Every structure is written in structure tokens, then in C-alpha cells.
Amino acid sequence: MPFERLLAAPLIGLLRLLGRLPLGLYHSLGARLGRLAYHFSPRVSRRIRDHLKLSGVCASEAEYERVLRVNIDETGKQAIEMLALWFRPEREASALVRSCRGEQEVQAAYREGRGVILLTPHLGCFEVAAIYAAQQVPITVLYRQPRVTWLRPLIVAGRERGRLKLAPASVHGVRLLLGALRRGEAIGILPDQVPRFGEGLWVDFFGRPAYTMTLIGRLWQVTRAPVFVATAIRRPNAQGYDIEVKRIEGDLSGEAGVRRINQAIEEAVRACPEQYLWAYSRHKTPDGAPPKPVRPANAP
Hints:
Largest sheet: 7 strands, mixed
Helix content: 40-55%
Order of helices and strands: HHHHHHEHEHEHEHEEEHEEH
Distance between the termini: 52 Å
Structural class: alpha/beta
Radius of gyration: 19 Å
Number of helices: 12
């Protein structure tokens, strides 16, 4: 670990300098990288096309082609814009959020003292949603540690600042999330990230089975903390982000709760399919997980 930190130190210094560059520069570069990845990586291009097509969010072939073209650029922006956010002063990064619809409802729920669960799917810029939330309330965000160990200090340095704390995707991390909720704080979770075997259920996502985490429902059962879907959509021409937060009502326990959460995520994606990460392998089977359920041939 000391060697990893020693290796990361000069990179962090460089990234802090690069973080001061205009957001538009990152978005312009990201769009170009998105096009390169689409044209030179058959796996990436196939995932984007197939997942977007099979989702059914486009009403016509013309609409599908339009969304696809935009999504290629937006996928690249999502991959690189974190550098403009992680290593920029927190208040400056948070100031890139131009509006936050639903913020008052979240603040009211926060004052109830049971904590708040914020779900930020792979839509728009989920990184800036967490940064903005930390300017309002203390928040602990669940994250999956990278396999490349020397990247871990970079991720921690970029994300864990001020009132934003990180919790690894482990038993210890779940305890940190539960502790934050019991203190009446907020937590953040990527709800459409494929969990490990034993931590999810096969539940439909855009009409196809997707192994979906059960953690959110279990945390809700224990704390009854209100649950919100939070999305940060990019404005045109790198003019910042608009956040929208919507509460998920009803019982979120068990399989029915997992379905309700997926439906809420679908609703958010349908509002802006251009900025969803269709390149993510959302319908994959984790190692050791049971096979996907097979529907009868005449099933819808």
C-alpha cells in the first residue's frame, strides 16, 4: 500500500491541475473518445446497439438512430468527465449543478432523522450528484474497488472529500452504510450495478432478466429510510448539470421491492435515454449465479 500511494501521489498532483480545465474541454474530448470506442471496439458497439434496441425506449427506427448517435458521444463524456469533478475544488464542482428539482422533498425527508437513501443509476453524471449531495448533507457512497490496486488511492482522493465518505462493496462497507443511516445521514448507491452472486435476484429490467441487488431493500427494511432516485443530466454545450430527485413510494422489501426499484430506474432512463450507459453489461450473469430465468416462447 505505501508503494501504491507513492506511485499515485504525482498523478494526483497532475490531476488536480488538469481538474481546473474547462468542463467543455473534457466533454469535447470525451465525445471523441466515445466515437473511437464505438468504431474500434466491437464489444462496446454491440452492447450499445443491442441494449438500446432491446430496451424498447425508442418508438421508431429513426428515433433509435438519433438516440444511438447521441449516446455514443455521451458514453465518452461519462467516462472522462470525472477528471473535471474529482480533482476540482468541491464547491466549484458542486456549482456545475445549475438546478436540483425535488431537493426540498429530500431535505424534508432528511430532517425526519431516519437517513436518506439516494440511488444514482448509470445515467448522466452520477459523480456530480454525490458531490452536490455532500454540500447539503453528510453522505456515504458505496463503491466497488478497482482490480488494479494502484488506482485505489486515485479513486479515494478524487471521491472522498469533505462530507463525502466511501464504503467498499463488502460486509464492512454495508456496516458503514447502515451506520450512516442510523446516524440520520445520507447514503448513495449505484442501483443498476450488477452485484455478486448471493447479493441479488433475477428481476426484469426493460423487459429482460437482470441480476439486481437486494441491498437497498434490506437497508430500507431495517431503517425505513426514504429512498430517492437521483439523476444528473448534462446540459448542452457543457453548461453544467440538472439534477432531478424522485422518491420511490411503497414497500421496498423482498422481490416486489426490487421490481419497484427497477421500475423507478426505468422511468428515469426513459426520460433521457441518450445519457444512459447502454454500454454497461447490465444483463450479464455473475460468477456462480443461477442461470437467467427462461420464459415460455409465447410470453410477452
